[in-house]
Design goal:
binds 2-acetamido-2-deoxy-beta-D-glucopyranose, four-stranded antiparallel sheet, alpha+beta, seven-stranded antiparallel sheet
């Protein structure tokens, strides 16, 4: 069995399975991941890592060629990378290279930028391995939010509510932050801020403290922005900006609640990371102008609401256990 992948952007555009299923004759294949040994064994004379693959073309051996079992001769060619040499040799010998996306064999994980010093390294793979990241960390019903016939829930006036991240995401981000452990002290003095002063302090950890800021901004752009555009018709801001991306920890003995305040945002994202009535009691968000509270929060669901003027709000007291929420002040 021969499995090959094409690296060129031009080709990768045409291989998106859902767009254009088919079989293509291509000039170059960049990687060979698995080759049945019997194909190569005969006449294999590999000398260095960089090898040139040539096909012994022997017209008297037509039968073997028709059976598509050419014998390979590997010789050195320092002027070409092995993939170029391989493709060129095949072309020069009249062997066509084909690519098909009619079958799904799986995919490769991009390990080039993988780091291992976090508790949950996979959380950080949002750009390099987005497909796997989505599967693990995006809520299974996320895409329904974007269906034209889905009406996004609105528990309070202009406060919407939608599923966005998986339970695994919530568990992993909590564990990542508890492992890091440097929760702020909840006082007004905050050296992490430009002015050193926080008017409405919480016990929290900012994403830039755990190296997750860029990943989170990418998340906002990829997964929050499309829902925002659906909810607030006519407001476009791409990419969304956010200087404040943080997880708040509410605890009866530390900080159980948060006094009424506005956010420094155009809109705020507030994702519930754990379960009311199980992991904690009390809690919730109350919008004072409407005397409306969202209390039965759902894990992995985000609230989205305007930050200023109309949505003056408070964090309701947690009476038992620990409550975690993930907050972003988008477009400050
Ligand atoms: C997704 O939606 C289906 C249908 O409403 C529901 O049964 C399922 O529990 C939802 N998945 C999650 C993880 O909430
Ligand atoms: C606000 O709502 C609560 C509970 O829904 C209700 O008991 C209270 O009377 C309301 N307050 C005002 C000022 O309407």
């Amino acid at each position: 069995m021969l499995i090959m992948a094409v690296r060129s952007a031009i080709y990768s555009q045409s291989i998106k399975r859902e767009e254009k299923p088919g079989v293509w004759n291509v000039p170059h294949i960049s990687d060979v991941y698995l080759i049945q040994g019997s194909l190569l064994r005969q006449g294999l004379t590999a000398k260095q890592n960089e090898v040139n693959v040539q096909i012994k073309t022997d017209s008297s051996d037509e039968k073997q060629r028709r059976n598509y079992y050419p014998s390979f001769v590997l010789t050195e060619n320092p002027s070409l990378d092995s993939d170029m040499a391989f493709s060129q040799s095949l072309r020069d010998n009249g062997v066509f290279l084909f690519l098909t996306n009619l079958f799904e064999f799986g995919h490769l994980v991009n390990s080039e930028s993988f780091v291992t010093h976090h508790k949950h390294n996979d959380l950080y793979e949002i750009y390099s391995n987005q497909m796997d990241w989505e599967k693990r960390y995006i809520h299974e019903n996320y895409s329904k939010n974007l269906d034209t016939d889905t009406v996004i829930e609105q528990p309070c006036p202009d406060v919407h509510w939608f599923p966005v991240v998986s339970e695994t995401f919530c568990k992993h981000i909590i564990e990542e932050l508890e492992n890091f452990g440097k929760w702020s002290d909840g006082s007004n003095s905050d050296p992490r801020l430009a002015g050193g002063y926080e008017n409405v302090p919480t016990r929290d950890i900012h994403m830039n403290q755990v190296g997750f800021e860029q990943q989170w901004l990418y998340f906002l752009r990829e997964y929050i922005r499309p829902v925002q555009e659906k909810i607030y018709t006519g407001y476009f801001h791409d990419p969304p900006r956010s200087l404040m991306n943080f997880v708040v920890r509410y605890h009866p003995n530390e900080q159980p609640s948060l006094r009424p305040h506005h956010d420094s945002s155009t809109y705020t994202i507030n994702i519930a990371l754990n379960r009311p009535k199980i992991d904690y009691e009390g809690g919730g968000c109350r919008f004072i102008r409407y005397n409306c509270s969202v209390i039965d929060l759902r894990v992995g669901w985000s609230l989205i609401h305007p930050g200023r003027l109309t949505h003056y709000h408070e964090g309701l007291p947690v009476t038992k256990g620990v409550r975690y929420i993930f907050i972003s002040f988008v477009d400050p």
